[in-house]
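Researcher: Here's the sequence for the chain we discussed earlier.
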Amino acid sequence: MHNPTTLADRRRFRLHNLKISLPTKALAFGLAMLPLHAINASKASNQYAQVISSNTLTVVAVKSPTTVFNDGQYFHGFGYDLMRNYAQSLNVQLNFQIVDSNATALKWVAKGKANLALTNADMQSIDQKSLMSFSASCGDATVLQKNGLDTQLNLVFKDAKDHLTQTASSFICQSKSNGAIQHLASFYNHHVVNEGSWDTIERDLQQRMPIYRASFERAAEQYNLNWHMLAAMGYQESYLKPNSVSPTGVRGLMMLTSDTAKAMGIENRTDPEQSIQGGAKYYDSLLSRYEYIPNPDRHWYALIAYNMGPGAVTFIQKQLEKQGEDPNNWLNMYAYLQRHQASNARYLQALQYVTRIRAYLEHIQNQQLINI
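Model: Thanks. This is the structure I predict for it:
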């Protein structure tokens, strides 16, 4: 397609990218036949060459439920993970910057301060700055909509002819084709907790969080953890009820088994202070076990292990390796659990466990419950 110069041309460019078909659009996907980082940077235009030479992809975005959350230590979110995976495909580091408005994000791209923006800015605003955009889901709004994500999320670039724009569109549509976007959207599903349950959850947190906040904070400080995450785990485990007992014998606010409690030096599992300390220590040990996995994925692996046991995680990793898949990639682990959840109730439980904790974590942050 020629370099779009008019408003109509730019809109046609966007529609062209939204409707790309893998078998027929050789221009957009020819680049995908090779490793993205193998493209000759000397022939690339400014943005791509800059990314490769600096070994850094700079992405700017506005914080939102679809783009990114900050848990106090690490970023996570649909948009953030999508860009992290794209940067990995280029074999460069991701520099993810959060700004206060779409206007600022677009300005950063227009001035070359960022290589691309992840935004839901309206088309008129994008056109006014002579920028180019295409769908963050390769035009598949349904996969975002059914998971409660923003269907208007777009990637915005400075130049349609830049290799960075071309490799990004190729990567996004490859991710759609191979199911990665589906799994990513499913993990960040904002319907994982029934909408009618949030009033009860909010009431529980308002009533019980003040009682245990100090204990969560002390344990988090001791093990260099985020206390919001520990609180989200505690709510998923027991609704912050220290006398909880499961049919399998786990008990206490953090629902420790007798063996785990003993290993963590906990004498009384129903004592909330001890339970939180034991849960934090065990979670920290699991994070150390998966230290070879980058954050935030390391946290999701540790949560699955907290729920199912490290042995179950090791088993799945071995199965993924046998299938020729990266056993340390969270999307592969998540996809495996999804594929086998119908035949293995533990996998279904693990999926619900990790996605609900993620949802509770984000809710605690958004509602500023830390100020209770």
